[in-house]
Amino acid sequence: MSALVTTLIGLLALVLETFARAAFGLDLWTPPLFIIFVLWLASSSPKSSDLIIVSVLGLLADGLASSPAGAHGLTGLVLLCLLPLLTSRLQLDRGVGAAAFGSVGALVSLLITAVVARETGSSGVAGRMGALFIPHLVTIAIGSPLLFPLFDRLARGRLRTVDADAL
Amino acid sequence: MAVRPEYIRKHYTIGVILIALNITLLFFDGTGPVSGPVSIAAERFAAPLNDVLGRWGGSVAGVWSDYVDLVHVRDENEYLQQENNRLKGRIAALNVLALENKRLSALLEIAETRKDLRLRVARVVRRSRSRQYRVVGLELDSTEGVEVGMAVVAQGGLVGQVRDLTDGSASVLLVTDPRSAVDVVLEKSRVRGIAVGSGHPTEYSAKLRYLNRSAQIVSRESVLTTGDAGRFPAGLVVGSVAPASDTQGGPFQDASVQAAVDFDDLDLVYIVLGTTGLTRDGEAFVKGKK
């Protein structure tokens, strides 16, 4: 799969996330489609170009969400670097495996968001962490097994491999 | 899982560099009270896309909001329709009550203005289907005190007289029945005559017979009972003289009388049981009656 296709899928995720925020009047929380996109990349042997794509799209996500520059990128990059270590242990083709993968990703992303919010003094985000925990976790856990096949179909050539040799 | 050294070299090295870059961005650009230049630039870059998506999302939100409103309007419409039907029923019931109240008030007015009469309320429960003979049936709790020939009055004036009695009911011969004859006097011209029911098939009226030809009858003047022979109390309104009075040859003239009582709307009536010995206003006793 080309970097362009990956970028377009990431853009689609960002567009849908921003659209959902406006359409449903979600001020406090939006469906974390960008995180699910990153998890999808992490689930299928990410390439170096994916890291750059996530970094750039993260900056765009920061602009769209008016969050501090680097917040989304940092979360995405950490997920993309850490979570491939899990792919050989989970059967991501199955819904439960993808949900478990998404849950771990959700927890990691929440942890990073909490650290970033604390360090950057985003008291609003830090104060909402408790309330965001369950919806964030549930949405990603449910959204991952649903959206991974969709992203796969969009990417067409990109096949999820659990071959550790790729690492 | 074994992580190969070449992957660490190629993949994680870039990852660490990018993570470090983002951390740097965060702590040098996003920690201050005011957004840093990179954050501002990112926001400006994303602004057009944000605007477009915000507008689209707003449109969808508007459509959804309109749909929800429409659903509410439909529910509200059904509720209001039910409420409307309920209120219509309530209004109809209230109208019946108002009509009943009006009739009772009218009856009470008769009782108030004719304190010289002993009256008993009765309800009209049936009407004669004959086009010529005019009889109505009254419902009575008991016929005690009621006799054949007693006058029956209602709002407006004289209705007729009790024709016969059965258990719990009475028949009343209306003044418009051709078999009815009532001694009357015209209110202004004081001409005497007899009001005989016309038996007209389509209207409630009577004929004034045996009026003195030399008398000047005033159009629309009231026709009152004389009280002669004691059958009908004096002063009950029978009707009014119709404008186009019919005259015939001979020593007498005839005229038509339009009945004062609305017989079509007859519901509650009084049977005149007798006199109380009081004057009409009830202020004093009639001489010799004390």
Question: What this model shows, in words?
Answer:
- The complex is a heterodimer of chains A (167) and B (290).
- Chain A has 167 residues and is mainly alpha-helical.
- Chain A is built from 6 helices and no strands.
- In chain A, helix 1 (3-23) runs antiparallel to helix 2 and helix 5 packs antiparallel against helix 6 (123-155).
- With 290 residues, chain B is α+β, with helices and mostly antiparallel strands.
- Chain A binds chain B through residues 15, 18-25, 46-48, 51-52, 55, 58-60, 62-64, 66-71, 73-74, 77-78, 80-81, 85, 88-89, 116, 119-121, 164-167, and chain B through 1-4, 7, 10-12, 14-16, 18-19, 21-27, 29-31, 35-36, 38-39, 41-47, 49-50, 53-58, 60-61, 64.
Summarize the structure.
The complex is a heterodimer of chains A (167) and B (290). With 167 residues, chain A is mainly α. Chain A contains 6 helices and no strands.
Query: Beta-strand level of the residues of chain A, as a percent range?
Result: under 5%
> Which geometry of chain B do the CA atoms define?
rod-shaped
**First and last CA, distance of chain A:** 18 Å
Structure class of chain B = alpha+beta
Q: What is the average of the pLDDT values of chain B?
A: 85
Q: So how many helices of chain A? A: 6
Unreliably modeled segments of chain A:
162-167
Count the beta strands of chain B.
12
Bin the helical content of chain B.
25-40%
Order of helices and strands of chain B: HHEEEEEEEEEEEE
Q: How big a fraction of the residues of chain B is strand?
A: 25-35%
Major sheet attributes of chain A:
none
Task: Describe the secondary structure blueprint for this structure.
The complex is a heterodimer of chains A (167) and B (290).
Chain A: H1 3-23, H2 33-42, H3 48-65, H4 71-82, H5 95-120, H6 123-155
Helix pairs in contact in A: 1-2, 1-3, 2-4, 2-6, 3-4, 4-5, 5-6
Chain B: H1 5-29, H2 37-113, E1 117-127, E2 135-139, E3 151-154, E4 157-166, E5 169-174, E6 181-186, E7 192-197, E8 205-212, E9 222-225, E10 237-241, E11 252-259, E12 268-275
Antiparallel strand pairs in B: 1-2, 1-12, 2-5, 3-4, 3-12, 4-5, 6-7, 6-9, 7-8, 8-11, 9-10, 10-11
